User: Fold these one by one.
Assistant:
Number 1:
Amino acid sequence: MGVQASLSDLRDVGQTMALSVQAENAAQLMRWIYDLVVLDPNEDTSKKTSTKLLDGVLGLLDALLVFQEGPGEEWMEMAKMAFGILLSCSANSNLELCAMATAKLHTLIQTRNMREPEEGAYLLYFMNRIVQKTIKVDNQEHYSFLIPVVKALLEKLNVTLGLANHLPGLPQTQAGPAFFDDFQCYCQEAQWQTFMEKKVGWL
């Protein structure tokens, strides 16, 4: 309820409230949600998040244009926390929640310039961790929601991370449906895992 109430308040007073006040109110709310969804050690994820909560978060991000190109300094912390929340929801076994989170991540990856390699590397590193867990338990349905995000990241970061040089065995992302199966095998190989830990994990 807090997210919906805050979103409504920010919309109502958005034109009259100082940007710094909007940013502080929204950032404080996002910190509470981040602490609950990402940092809370409770393993019962149903008590930490829901599709309604995530929908409220996405509405807040859209209303405040947090991910627009060239965001102000006041939104940088919110963007980082938002990515953390989206990644956490992508890892959730609730596939409806996962679908919402991965759809938003996919859109952001395709529309953001990602001039700084750290942002893309952060997303790729943690998406890989989620992928590895789904493969370990053979959850193909969950994997199917994740792989479009991984594919989009690989295409976006191809030049930035020098994938052609570091990962000569990487399946072609243009291969269509074949990439789904090919990557599942490839990401278990030493070439990929070494790259993730020694190259991506250090950025």
Number 2:
Amino acid sequence: MSGVANLFGKGKYAEIEKENARLTAENKDMQLAVAKMEGQVAKIPMMVQRQVRQTIEDKTEEHLTEIRELNASHSRELSSLQVRLQNLSARYRELESNNRHIIDNLKREKDTLLAQMEAMLRLLGEKLEKAVRALIQFARVLAYKTFTREHKEAIVSWLALDRDDPKSNAHFVKVFARPFLTDKEFDKGCKELDRLTSSFPAVMEDLEQPQRRGMRR
């Protein structure tokens, strides 16, 4: 080594040794840094895994919280609906009871009115009663499309009491028949009665023909 030192000089050799020592130290530091970095890199998957797990746990808890809040909200809404249903049911029962009472009263009034109409019919005379009953029977039976001869005879015998104004007597028949018929039945009966009164003379003549033939014999 003294030969080398003599070749380059003692000062120069010392500088080389110093630089060599510095490079050696830097190399060791670099190796330590690389090892440390490798250790940190090795830890990255574990850190990511922990972070992902924590995120999942946080999201799961957040989701569970939302579910609990929704369940609580649904429970409140269900309770509210149940209360409303109970109130509506109670109100319905109350209205049903009141309506039944009203309906019963109306039915009694209707029955009373019909009984009074029946009594008035009997008092007003047999011909009017027969005419009204004929119109009611015709209107109620679906098979009847026009008056039968029996219907006509019963009605005409009443209308003929005022031949100059059969429509006036027909009005009485309608008035007394109305309470016993539905709207549809009453409409059917009125239309047929109007047709009869509009051709009253011809109907009278048609009904009298058998009697005339019998008299000629």
Number 3:
Amino acid sequence: MSVLIETSLGKIAIDLFTDECPITTKNFLKHCKMKYPTGKGTGGDSIYKFLYGDQSRFFDNEIHQKLKHSKRGAVAMASAGKNLNASQFYITLRDNLDYLDGKHTVFGEVAEDEENILKAINEAYVDDKGRPFKNIRIKHTHINKRSKSHSDGSDKLTIDTENKGKNMAPARKVRNHDYCFHRRHQDDKHGRR
């Protein structure tokens, strides 16, 4: 399954690792369908909070040894700590960001970036906190159901209701960004290489 993300700079196609990270990808896909985030700067909530209440604002990591931050375009959860995933995610802009491995759930990868959007994001002028001077926004998302993901052959997106929030961490405030593009370091005060 993949998602086409329309940003204020152009389009990026992301392939999702639905078999390896089912909880994370369901959360991401439901947020895409709901047109979430709202951009209110509240840090975001997982879809499981809407189903099971405040105790399910966060969900557990789904970290796998083979899914790493080894190349540009890895898509991962921007968690507030171990098992504190909500709605924030990032896309890596460099290769070999191994210091992130084992800490963040990698749940997808950029499959198409024909307009060099990742390069444009990486070259954006930023303030001293790493935020772009000109906002880079997600305008719209499109879910592409390339493969049949259910045993009955349907493409329906469903949520596992058997867990009912059992593996969810208690609510805690996280960063004020709805999404971010992680930058390992900046070479100068404007983030230019």
Number 4:
Amino acid sequence: MVVSILSARVVPRLAARTLISASRVATGPGIQQTLPRHFPASRDFTSYTALAFPATAASARAKSATARKSTAKKTTARKTAVKKKPAAKKKPVVKKKKVVKKKKATRIGRTKVVKKKKPVKKERIKIRSEDKLPKRPATPFALFYTRFLQNNPVHLVKGSHDKTPLYEQLRAASHAWKALTDDERQAFQNETKDMYEEWKKKRDVYFATTDRKILLEINRRRKLKGKPKIHLPQVRTLNAIPPFIRFMMDFRRSPEGQDLKKTMNSVQLAKAAGIRWRMMNDDEKKSYTDAYHREAAANKAST
């Protein structure tokens, strides 16, 4: 059986290949190729492998089932595809028409050309050293410290950021200031008072003579640097002490008030003084009212 199958399939193929190769060598222009009819030059349906070994029925059914599923998925995907919303219509942009101003005609008939005015640049105000406010005088300790440094100078190394010698010198100056007597300190205090009086005179002259524009420019620059503005010196009017307040001050110093302080606070003591003030007659209150009127008149005269 096996031999018959091989003789029927393999032998004709080998013979056909040999004849085809021989005919290719022999053929040329004008020569016709002739082959015997019983030799097949190509495969026939009996020698085709697909027909010789047909597929099983199960595999064919499986392939058909997968093909059906793929087609079903494609159809469902097409149905469930979301339709894209149409794009919103853009509003037409309306261009504004340029309004052309007509030039005024003169009597002669010619157009008058109006030139644009250039912006006026603000003049920069220069501030000299004389225009600045005079510096306030130093405190008594500051005066003492400057003289202490003159006698005991501090030697700092150039390029180093170590300032411990300066701090030590400041501590030494504070100890020396505390060691001074009251008379020695009074000399520095008197000197600062004299300097302060001179500074007040210079300040008044400065505000009286300096231009307002310069003061505004100085305040503008101080504001940019975060410093407080310079204000004119305010004249404070002293108010006279009312009669009842005078009486209460005397009442607190009296022996009765000293005894009440031990058991009462300031509010309760003021209430007790108010009760005593109401019990007094006009003659007893007159000394306090006269003192009030005298002080008020003196304050008015000074202003």
